[in-house]
Write a structure and sequence with these properties.
Order of helices and strands: EHEEEEEEHHHEEHEEHEEEEHEHEEHH
Strand order of the largest sheet: 6-5-4-3-2-1-7
Distance between the termini: 18 Å
Structural class: alpha+beta
Number of helices: 10
Helix content: 25-40%
Radius of gyration: 20 Å
Number of strands: 18
Largest sheet: 7 strands, mixed
Length: 328
């Protein structure tokens, strides 16, 4: 019998709809002759599996559902494609660990660490040959920082972003002292913790990787060029960006980015597909690698970075996904 795969999507953050688009992409990529796949839409008040035109409730006790024919069905594997909580912060991973259901991402510790931008920045701050920008953390309920002191430390422009979040929701590029506190308030609409980060200038690139057996495989690097102030939601999802794969960077630099991505993957003991974003700063071939962020549940629509990179590598995407499913 085919394995029954839950494509676990939706979630409890502003990224719900983005996640559902990634779920549709995954459903089109996975080999349907090899696996039976159903999308499970997680919302705060309801977990439902989509079976044809029906939305059937999922029993949280064992992550099962009753099919239209009356039989109770249990999933063999969870492919998590929730961007944000609870799929990218370790919560679902802990749930599936307790049920003994294998899943597509890294474990609880890695997911919770990488989801928190302040935590992962400081964890990797002393990683060899990797540069991490200066930052300031602001927590809801604590006194707001003095804007002039922040600017003195980080300079202008600087970025204000939710510590836990994605798709650039709540992110502001701050250009004046007076704009700093409003930007913090905007970010706190998305999360209780806010990161203020010094501006990094240079070429933005992103490199995907996954584990095939005991080997960490990196994909061709993508260069991100946008006419927007930064790679914001509009640029990501409304086509206001050029995504060039492979990136137009020095071959030696490309090799360093790939090696760094592999080293981070191995150091954190990741699983499944991750994507590491960098800013390359300096003369061509001698750039410093500035860490931007790690995405452990990257987008999987037809035009997302990872499918682009897999195609550029000449790999069948269905085979990559099967490696992940069968690897656990």
């Amino acid at each position: 019998m085919k394995k029954l795969i839950a494509i676990v999507a939706g979630g409890y953050s502003s990224e719900h709809d983005v996640s559902m688009r990634s779920a549709a992409g995954l459903l089109s990529f996975i080999n349907q002759e090899q696996y039976e796949c159903l999308i499970v839409d997680l919302e705060r008040n309801a977990w439902n599996v989509v079976v044809g035109e029906d939305r059937l409730p999922v029993c949280k006790d064992d992550f099962s559902f009753v099919a239209p024919d009356g039989t109770r069905r249990r999933f063999d594997f969870a492919y998590i494609i929730i961007h944000g909580t609870p799929g990218e912060d370790g919560l679902l991973q802990g749930y599936f660990d307790m049920l003994g259901i294998p899943y597509s991402t890294s474990g609880v510790l890695v997911e919770s660490l990488t989801f928190d931008k302040f935590a992962i920045n400081n964890y990797l701050r002393h990683f060899p040959d990797l540069f991490v920008s200066e930052n300031v953390l602001v927590r809801r309920g604590e006194a707001l920082p003095d804007a002039n002191e922040v600017v003195k430390k980080l300079g202008l422009p600087c970025f204000v972003k939710p510590t836990n979040g994605g798709s650039s929701f709540g992110v502001t590029k701050v250009k004046t002292v007076d704009a700093l506190l409003p930007a913090i308030e905007c970010a706190m609409n998305e999360d209780s913790d806010v990161l203020i980060e010094a501006l990094m200038t240079g070429t933005e690139v992103t490199c995907g990787a996954y584990k095939r057996g005991d080997e960490v495989v990196t994909f061709p690097i993508t260069e991100v060029v946008t006419t927007q102030e930064f790679f914001d939601y509009d640029a990501k999802y409304n086509g206001k960006v050029d995504e060039i794969t492979p990136a137009r960077i020095d071959p030696h630099t490309a090799a360093r980015v790939s090696a760094m991505t592999k080293a981070i993957y191995q150091h954190l003991d990741c699983y499944g597909i991750i994507r590491v974003d960098y800013i390359l700063s300096g003369a061509a071939g001698q750039e410093e690698l500035h860490f931007l962020e790690i995405n452990t549940v990257p987008g999987m629509t037809a035009t997302s970075f990872i499918p682009q990179q897999i195609r550029a590598a000449g790999l069948p995407i269905a085979d990559v996904l099967a490696d992940i499913i069968e690897g656990k």
